[in-house]
Amino acid sequence: MDSNKLLKMSDMCITDEPSACTAFCPVHVDLRSFMEEIENGDFKKAYKVMSKKIPFPRLIGKICDHPCEEVCVRENIGGSISIGDLEKLTVDLGFVSKRKGFSIPKNDKRVAIVGGGLSGIVAANSLDNKGYNVTIYECTEKIGGRIWTHQGKDLTGESIKIGLNEFKNRNIEINYNTKVDKVQLRNISEQFDAVYLGTGIWDENLEINHETHQIGKSSVFVGGRLFNQNDSVIYSVSSAMSSAISMDRYIQKISITVAREKEGTYMTPLVINTDTIEFQGKVERKGDKYTREEAVEEAKRCLKCQCLNCVKICSHLKKYNRVPKKYIREINHNETIVLGNHYANKIINSCTLCGLCKEVCPSCIDMKEIIQETRQSMVERGRMPISAHDFALKDMEFSNSKYFHMVKNQPGYNEVKYVFYPGCQLSASQPEYIEKTYKYLISNIKRGVGIFLGCCGAPADWSGRQDLMKLNVENIRDKWKAMKKPIFILACSSCCSVFEKYMPEIKYISLWEVMDKRGIPIKNKISKKHVLNIHDACTTRHNNRIHNSIRHIVSDLGYTVEELKYSREKTKCCGYGGLVYFANREQSDEFVNDRIQESSEDYLVYCAMCKDLFVSKGKKTYHILDLIYSDNIEKVSLKKAPTLSERHKNRILLKINLLKNIWNEEVDTPNVIYNLNLIISNDVKESMNDRFILLEDVEKVIYNAEKNNEKFINTKNSHYLARLRIGNVTHWVEYEKKDEGLVVHSVYTHRMEIVEE
To answer: Could you tell me which residue ranges the 4Fe-4S ferredoxin-type domain spans (predicted)?
Structure first.
């Protein structure tokens, strides 16, 4: 996948953007971390968070006018967090003496600070930290300026002296009782490389009316109250720090303006959805200030604003702890590796490609598109592990083989207006409904309905196999043209998605729209109340026609529908999509469990795989056709899904039964089933299913072993061990001959090829 495209997409992710309060804070204190430390009761760490951004935190932390509270997301759902009060308490409870570190070597550059007030000492502090030789000119006998106006309110005289001592102990020259006028300013500017004017008072005689002004050989940088109309403490601090950066850049002869858009106050692009956030009022103080316990409770009200919309609703992103920004950069790294381990392959193959992340993303980042393109790129460059999707692709191949594939016009019609395309998974899971549905269609539609058995190609699409997808689409398109371009009636959600994506010229209508419009068999209409939650298939995310038709049918049958929190365009995946079921079973199970835990009511689905996976975890689930055709509604809701081997057999028998019952054609059972008398325990069958081993392949191995005598014998227990390479996989079967048949003891596979010389 194109690296530039990937990186542009990663830059769209706002997860790393600061919270509203941090962005609006003129010095950008990490208030999310600050609140987390207080919530944990660790005021010392909270103080450290403050001191990373706030100079002289013992002083400014007490007198900050906290504009951050104005933009707190909590404002309308309980009131803004009391950030100012929490900062004051943190100074009291969390102050830690700053460890004496290594002094930065001084350079040969000199800067002057005119005015030793709040703004001046902040600028001086910043420039001293950068290694400049700093000289302050203060018109009074003490530094600190307006900090002293808070004496007796938030600060004591003693605490101010202690707070300023740290500054006085620096190697900074301070000239007290030195008033600087226009002439003196010009003289100073001739002696220094840059001058900061932080007098805090407008002096028209200085003729300074811009942030930067050239006087003599150096530039004068203006800060303090001159550019702080609100007389704000924290804005003065920010202005001084910003000016110090400008002075540093000026002296180093680099751009003063480049990459400084987010200095000072700005509005964050971070978006927080407050619709589901509960009202929670401020913690009331019992005294003049918060106690430790009250402060902890107030900090708990903080939402710790961060965009994790996609992570919160996606089992995949949650499992791997990935936000799009990090995930996309990982994909980019994985794509650009020439030699070495492509460690992100498993993660990339563990996404269901459901598209929910885009629906909840404020930036509309489409991880589905990114990961699907990545899989295609991996396949094209030979970096997709064959094992990840091998079974699903072989299953698709089987569905499009002579054992299942079939295209027929309705008996008595040379040409049909419609063709029923049930799909491969419904035909494998619930074949008994296909014939009933086809009979329903030909009895309700007068212009003829043909039938088309096969696989739409979704496995090829999901696995990135565009070569196979192209062949599959061409095959469907050719058959469609040969039938004079009928309208497809689709019963499978994935088929609808594939037809829309790859064959937009083929008109289709869902089976559910047909039933909604033409009426349904009503023999199963219930009389007592039965609540159902509808799980919408993720492949129909934006198909409102299907969503509405399903709900109409369910209501017509007498059921009460209660919507899940995540439904329609925001539905979740069942865990089968994107072939995750085959590539990462553990991840698939997490998707299943996440979805079924959303409600205690019975589920209604219209995708066969959704039902099979939900039922596998004990969730009572109905397929829409269960409600219409089943004779035992209660029992069918927990009907266990057929094994992978049984799914193949079901497709074969469905084709045979349709030909016999609809077209009166007798067909022999194909020799894909060898009809060996195998005795297989339930444990072995379950192991085969978990390892994607088909009964027909086990029969092939034993048939070959018996016919060609290609087997080993264990003389201790008389067990035979046989092997056979089928496609890319070598199958091993341990079996024993008994009077009642061939007892299979174990089956396993690997991709190592045994070569005999």
So the answer is: 340-370
